[in-house]
Design a protein that fits this description.
Helix content: over 70%
Distance between the termini: 23 Å
Structural class: mainly alpha
Order of helices and strands: HHHHHHHHHHHH
Length: 319
């Protein structure tokens, strides 16, 4: 596990250094935009703090004796965000599962359940915020809001039903690895669903996730204001936020590259008449504003965690 994490961090750092063209970024930003972009990266860091706070109630449910606070979860969240930005298919989630599983000395399946709970709570918060933005900025868009909220209610009902269903007892023991892996996945999903039913955990988690999404909304607003000096409206900010965050939900390529850029550029050019150069600048800068604040923290923390384990293991053996 240590070797895999170190290799992943090294590859991620190389990819980041190759893909980040600071000279091109400087050419695309108009004069006077940099103070606003720095402000945007600060809002991105605040979003990561809220994400750690949203995960904390679910992790606290599985902690045996250790008191869990959000500062202790910020590093795993930062490591995951860094790796998700440079590796495909949200690979970074495995890193935060491994870090917390080792720290709390609980099974990876139970920690995976907390990630499931966290993801679903974040989805609920995003849906509520997106519906509110559409109602405020697009009064004629009531129909999609109603359909979306009805879909969310169906999903919540299905989750509640799955969480209350008793776990089946195995009639025979199977030792096939694939079967064991599937059982572990089902166990993790069930644990996550039970976490969502606990309102003492899910209510503050959804509220903190809402704070994270609002911080990302501020990042979108500031980046648009910095790179498109004229014509930025609340409706534009809301629509780009919804398109950008929806495109990031399930990235197949590192950091959702390609899909997120298309989700930003297409409505800017087709709906709001923004030039191709300005649209491209927004599409490039927006993910970076969210990724840069945690990239350095995540890489350093991940490397430190991977390198510290051999020393701790050796010290334990000597004693």
């Amino acid at each position: 596990m240590r070797g895999l994490l170190l290799v992943g961090l090294a590859v991620a750092l190389i990819v980041a250094m190759v893909s980040l063209d600071l000279a091109a970024l400087q050419r695309s930003a108009p004069a006077g935009a940099w103070p606003l972009l720095v402000l945007a990266t600060g809002a991105g860091a605040v979003a990561m703090v809220f994400r750690a706070m949203a995960w904390r109630p679910f992790v606290a449910r599985i902690a045996r004796t250790e008191r869990v606070g959000w500062p202790g979860l910020f590093v795993p969240v930062a490591v995951a965000s860094f790796l998700n930005g440079v590796l495909p298919a949200r690979t970074g989630e495995a890193a935060r599962i491994a870090l917390i599983s080792r720290r709390l000395r609980v099974g990876a399946a139970r920690v995976t359940g907390t990630v499931v709970s966290d993801a679903f709570g974040s989805l609920v918060a995003w849906a509520l915020l997106a519906a509110g933005l559409l109602l405020l900025t697009r009064p004629g868009g009531l129909a999609p809001v109603v359909v979306g909220m009805a879909w969310l209610a169906v999903v919540v009902g299905a989750v509640a039903a799955a969480a209350t269903r008793p776990e089946p007892h195995a009639t025979q023991r199977r030792h096939n690895r694939v079967v064991r892996a599937l059982r572990a996945a089902v166990t993790a999903l069930g644990e996550g669903m039970r976490g969502l039913r606990d309102l003492r955990a899910s209510a503050p988690a959804v509220a903190a996730s809402g704070g994270a999404w609002v911080a990302q909304l501020m990042v979108v607003a500031v980046v648009l204001e910095a790179l498109i000096p004229v014509g930025v409206t609340p409706a534009m900010v809301a629509f780009i936020f919804i398109m950008f965050t929806a495109a990031q939900a399930a990235p197949l390529l590192p950091g959702g590259i390609g899909t997120t850029q298309a989700a930003v550029m297409t409505p800017l050019m087709a709906t709001y008449g923004v030039s191709a150069a300005q649209s491209l600048a927004v599409a490039v800068v927006l993910p970076l504003a969210l990724w840069i604040p945690v990239a350095l923290i995540g890489w350093v923390a991940g490397a430190k965690a991977a390198l510290r384990e051999p020393l701790a293991h050796r010290t334990t053996q000597e004693t």
